[in-house]
């Protein structure tokens, strides 16, 4: 849907971005996911303002958007205020985080304990690789970002375990026309890293498969007054 809305394959394929699932009142039925609310919301983030404008324009250009059996119509759009980034930031997952994907022959469905060093190390490697690939940082800057740690919320994990619920699930991903599977994690956590790293994660998504809708983050208790998003105006690219 987003690629069709963008209407520029080169821009879409080269953009760094991620997005949330379609949020609304839902219920799982025999034929799939059923929406009971009149309004649904999707959240998109990218550091590329041209890309965001193209998506927004495309969605409002269509009178109706068919997504599966769901008929949608663009109604309104808002821009999120960008937070002040520091060396310690707490995050919530709007979409699951995939810490690694087909890296060094590892099984991307394997469970990795989020309190382990392996979990943090995988996300560090993923983030540094993506930051380097973006071309926005020098080798000296990348080397300076060595301080990095992911600290999951232990109280949340203990509560989830007591309730016998899951924070890690296997998700299907369509990549290059093939259906693959990857394990995604949904939990609150803190990241200790340089402000530049925090900003990259916030605008580009965290972990792997971000262009497939994984790794979308939000900041808890950060609720500034929202303002309308005007296409072409110089404001944040996060919606």
From TrEMBL:
Any Pfam family: Cas_Cas6_C
Lineage top rank: taxon: Bacteria
A molecular-function term among this protein's GO annotations: hydrolase activity, acting on ester bonds
Keywords assigned by UniProt, alphabetized: Antiviral defense, RNA-binding
GO BP annotation list: defense response to virus
Keyword RNA-binding: yes
Domain CRISPR associated protein Cas6 C-terminal: 82-219
Family recorded in the similarity comment: Belongs to the CRISPR-associated protein Cas6/Cse3/CasE family.
UniProt protein name: CRISPR-associated endoribonuclease Cas6
Organism: Flammeovirga aprica JL-4
Gene assigned in the entry: cas6
